[in-house]
Every structure is written in C-alpha cells, then in structure tokens.
Amino acid sequence: MKRVRVWICVLCALMLFAGCAGKGSTGWDEEQYREPAEELKEEPEAEATFRRSTVYYLSDEGFIVPVTKLIPWEEGIASACLSYMVSTPENLSAARELGLSTVIPEGTELSLSIRDGNALLDMKGLAPLASAEAELAMIEAVVNTLTEFSTISTVTVTRDGHGGTLENGTELPVRRSEYALNPEDPELAASTGGRQVTLYFPNLSGAVTVPVSRQLSAEPNIYSTVSALIEGSKSDKLLRCFPENTLLLGAAVENGVVTVNLSGDFARVADTKGLYSLAYRTLWLTLKEQLDFKALRMQVNGEDFAPETTEGSLDVNSFGG
User: Fold this and answer.
1) 179, 210, 227: which is the final residue of a domain?
2) Which end of the chain has less Cβ packing within 10 Å, N or C?
3) For the whole model, what pTM was predicted?
4) Domain final position from 131, 163, 179
C-alpha cells in the first residue's frame, strides 16, 4: 500500500523555546485549526512542469525521514529522485539545512530499469559504507523512494551487476516491497501478527518530524492511534509532546473536522512555548495516514484549547525545486 505523501515540516529549535504564544480559543474558529503549514507558493504553471515526489533521507539520530519536493517533469523521473539522494556537495548542503543527510555515497552511478512492477537498480562504483546501519538506511531509503511511484511495487538492487551482500553484511534486496519506517520493534514489524500504525514524533531539537512504525494489538482506528501517539516514543532520541498523565477523553471526525478531547494534564504544554505546535503537528501528520480531513480541533476537558498559534511557526521540508 502506497504511503500517504505529506509535507514533512520543520520547527526551528529557536521556535521550540521562544515560539510565538497566542490567545487561547474561546470559540470554534475553523480557520484557526486548519493545517499548520502552508505548501510552497508555486507559480500556477508549476503543476504542469513539476511533479511532487517523495525522497528519503537520514536524520542525525539515524532515522529515515521522507521529504516531499517538486521535481521537474522528465523521462526517468524515478532516477531523478534517486539523484537527489547522492552525497554530492550540493545535495549535502541542501539536506543539512533541514538537519538531514543524504544516503548514497558520492561517485555512485545509478542505472534503473522497470519491468512488470519491479524496479531493478544497479549501483555502479558504490563505495563501502561505514556500518551495517548505514547500509540498511541507504537500502530502505532507495526502496521506499522508488515504491512511492504507482508503477513500482518491488525493488531489486544490485552492485556492479551482482546481488549478494555489502561489506558489513547487509543483503541487497530482491523484489522487496516498501519498508516500515523506523519500526520500534523490527522483529515484530517483519512478522504477520499485529497491526501497524505510523506515528510522528519530533527529534529532541524539534527540527525534524520522524515517522515511527508501531504494532498495535488490533486494527488501528482514530482512538487507538491517538492513544498510541499520546504514549510517546520508546526512543530517548525523540521528543514527547504530550505531558505525562495526559488522557484521551474522546476522538471523532465529523464533516471533515477531527476533534480530539484531552484531559487537563495536556494544558501543561503551554508551559513550554512551541510544544503545543509540535503536538499539533505530530497529531495532524499521524491522523493524515488514516483519515481525509480538513481541520483539527484540540480540546481540554471539552473546551477548545489553543495556547499558541501554529501559523508562521512551522516551515516546510523542501528544497531544490
């Protein structure tokens, strides 16, 4: 199943600690609860000459992060997407502006062909990577970038025309479908049991929003998904946006508006400027994986709650397009 393409958003560390505080909500204003980051302001003809594509990078903490960018229409656009992931000086500089890094060593020549839904990628002159973790990150990023295209279901990767393993023992994939992103339990994610949900958490600086795959005991729904997000990440490298003891009192969607009602403990987010914006952002992205909605309304004990505005405090991860 193709992942939902989203604009992964950045909140500068400065904004996390000195973000703009706004007035609390006293009444339902749908405009206040719209998506908290605007898309790029393209010229009207941009859609005819560019394609929104998702490419995958690596955060400083070692997480795979999807970034959506505008790429000029051309034959072999899948190959063009991969070219942005090669560690050229230009690509590295653009990625570092987002707190990310590229995954394919500089000097690698990429040759891609697609047949019967399988993309065959040959990586010529691939230099050895530093670790098994770096090898797996590169492979996951490549496979997930290619499987974003509707014509590609699986990916096979070779090195100089041959399969096998890389220097640190990582096997090159053969007809591999997309990987679960940053699974909390890799063994459980690879099994057939449980149900998988994608949750979004900021890194500790608030600079990057990271998708994390978690297995639930039953089929995910709006209530179980929000509850899982409130629990926080199991990684000490990711920020918990919902204060301890926060309880989910209700979660529903009606007429395109999602309403999430939380207990009074959530109001403590107002003590750290910027934290509400991060909580709102992670909730929006997490629910967008499951639902089609136009607005998100947050409440505390049944009363609308917005201690600060998300408008203007978030930027969009995009570059080179």
Assistant:
1) 179
2) N
3) 0.80
4) 179
